[in-house]
Amino acid sequence: MLTTALLISGLGLLFLGGEALVRGSAALALRFGLTPLFVGLTIVSFGTSSPELAVSISASMSGQVGVAVGNVVGSNIANIGLILGISALLSPIKAKSKLVLWDVPIMIAASFLVAALLDDSRLAWREGLLLLGGLVAYTGFGLHLARREKNGIRREFEGALPPGTVTLARQIVLILMGTGALILGGRAFVDGGVRMAYAFHVSPAVIGLTVVALGTSLPELVTSVVAALKGHPDIAVGNAIGSSLFNLLGILGIASIVHPLKLGEVQGEDLGAMIAISVLLLVLIRTRFDLNRWEGGVLVASYVGYLAWLFSRVSGA
């Protein structure tokens, strides 16, 4: 009962906190003159990754390094296989933004970088700084491309972002409330996930790769599915891919600076699965970002296949 209560209450706080943080930070960024396109493809997608950030930092500080790393790896696999797959199944996706088209190869490069840094099974603060440096470079690159986008793409994001009439005081309150809810929700969710791992006699890393990763990916799922159904393909894709990039560069970077991370019981095969599904996405989109329904089905099937393989590995251990 306690485990279930911790998971449900933690997930609720993470969802509400992430929503408040996204609304507050996006409106604040628009107030300071950033373009809606840049805000939508970076700040909003980073904001939907705030539950992963809260969970990974909480796990890192409490010594549950398997949950911290597993959460990022599992969330990235879910972002591509489950979230983009379901979005394409509901409504075929054809993105037009140059920034979105660049995001996939950059995400693959970041995945290889993280795998290389974890070759010795640990991530120290110096490597965390390197990852954060990559995030800063990517953000600068995104701002440069956003300024060169066509007016039609800019209008797509203008209609999907929070209205700019919100007062500055309310924006700050939303950010503070969202941050507080994320901190409390992250601690409760990690505690519940660890208790579940012990109850089912599996490692916390497996819970991080599955239950925790799926739970913290709910904001990305909701955002991308709604955007796809409303005919905003660039938002649907940009949110999922941008969140994956922030997971790799921002979350692992910050968490490893707070406390050195270890690969723990997350295995090289899990990192390989993350890279493989990223490369699969690149193959499916080919030269244009075009995901039809059968390709969405392939992505979802790949995610289900990974889960089946993971649980067979655990049951055979």
Describe the structure.
The protein has 317 residues and is mainly alpha-helical. It has a single domain, classed as NCX, central ion-binding region (A middle domain of Talin 1, Up-down Bundle), CATH 1.20.1420. 81% of the residues lie in helices and 3% in strands. The chain is built from 13 helices and 4 strands. It has helices spanning 2-31, 36-48, 50-61, 65-90, 98-117, 125-146, 151-158, 168-199, 204-216, 218-229, 233-258, 268-285, 293-316; strands at 93-94, 122-123, 261-262, 290-291. The strands form 2 sheets. It has a two-stranded antiparallel ribbon with strand order 1-4. Strands 2-3 form a two-stranded antiparallel ribbon. The chain starts with a helix and ends with a helix.
**Strand segment count:** 4
In CATH, the topology is named: A middle domain of Talin 1
Poorly predicted runs: none
Give the C-alpha Rg: 18 Å
Straight-line distance between termini: 28 Å
Architecture, according to CATH? Up-down Bundle
Q: Strand pairing plus helix content: what structural class?
A: mainly alpha
The biggest sheet, with number of strands, parallel, antiparallel or mixed sense and barrel status, is: 2 strands, antiparallel
Question: What's the overall average pLDDT, rounded?
Answer: 82
Silhouette: globular
CATH level-4 homologous superfamily: NCX, central ion-binding region
The total domain count is 1
